[in-house]
Amino acid sequence: MHPKSQCHHTGDSIGLRPANEVPVVCIVYNRARLVRKLIDRLRQVKPSLVLVVADGPKRGDMADTEACEQVRAEISRIDWDCRLHLDYAESNMGCSERVVSGLNWAFSLVDRAIILEDDIDADRRFFWWAARMLAAYENRDDVAMLCGHNSLVWWPNVNPFTAGIPSLRSGISGWATWRRKWHAVQNTPIGGNIGDAVVDIAAHDFEPALGALLRFYLEQARKVTNLTWDDNWSLRMVMSGRIAIVSPVNLVHHLGLGPDATLNKDSDDMLFSLPRATARGASTPENLLAPPALCLLPYRANDRDFDRARVLIELLVRTRDPGMARRLARHDDLPLPSGLRLHLLPFRHVGETQQWIEHLADAGVDGSAIERWRRALGSAGHLHPAGVSA
Q1: E strands, 201-286, where?
Q2: pLDDT tens digit string along 308-319?
Q3: Using an 8 Å Cβ cutoff, are 87 and 53 in contact?
């Protein structure tokens, strides 16, 4: 549950820019069909400033060269009145390097931005919500970013006057941030000895499931293998003492699954295509997103229950061998590497995980995905009581 400490009320007179006056950064590569959808969505909002970051084609790959040219032709379809800045790489830089260098370029030109990769389909209300929250939290050093993707579709414990959930689990499927926060997080040191990762994470008193995830990220970051740029950002964000604010209802579809994806070629991850702008009970999505007077979250707030639920569901959905996971989860004393122990968490906390599967079912998630997740979870004999350390 979110902290109950007093917060400050503000109206819309806090320097709020209209949604179309917030710069939008589009990150694209070689998927023209998705860029076309993205531009069609932006045409509904008509942002007055669009910055396009494009990776280049792989050397010697004519098909990739043609695909990149098709993407750039789609960008030329932008036909509303706006300023357009282009940062096109001549050759392929790879996802992480291109995104980071592109955002460094974008934030050399603007002081805040909504950021959309080519496979993100954001509800129109996301742009308005992000504009309002960018204005409200501009001077709050503890807030690093705003996230339009809510992997639980909606959150029953949200404070209805805050229009956001304080989270230590970032998400880059439709997000926004400020120049100052981008550079502050990027410059947060995470180096050190791999063996010290346990102590370094424990010093922050993270929710145990989230702490296990962050420990894995930190160990990976301290090895030769680099993290993906978004996992790197997520880790640096929390190690800097900052939080993300997540939309109380999901506002984003992720369309990037399939054979032409960069990282999710063989994935059927339904968390990418959850229902949008859905809530149950007395509150409607509009009321949750746009309270008449916005109540700012307490400084460094953190909804530990929300973060725990997200981690358990995300780990379950991405389990490749649930049968093996169920068997291993029955044995606490096995000397397993931290990465494997991390992926056993949903199977060691079956009751909690099942609760959130049923929540997603109630929220309208595709029934075949719900059944798949139920079967994956099974009945793993030994259950930890809720709240026991991960």
Answers
A1: 243-246, 252-254
A2: 999 999 999 989
A3: yes
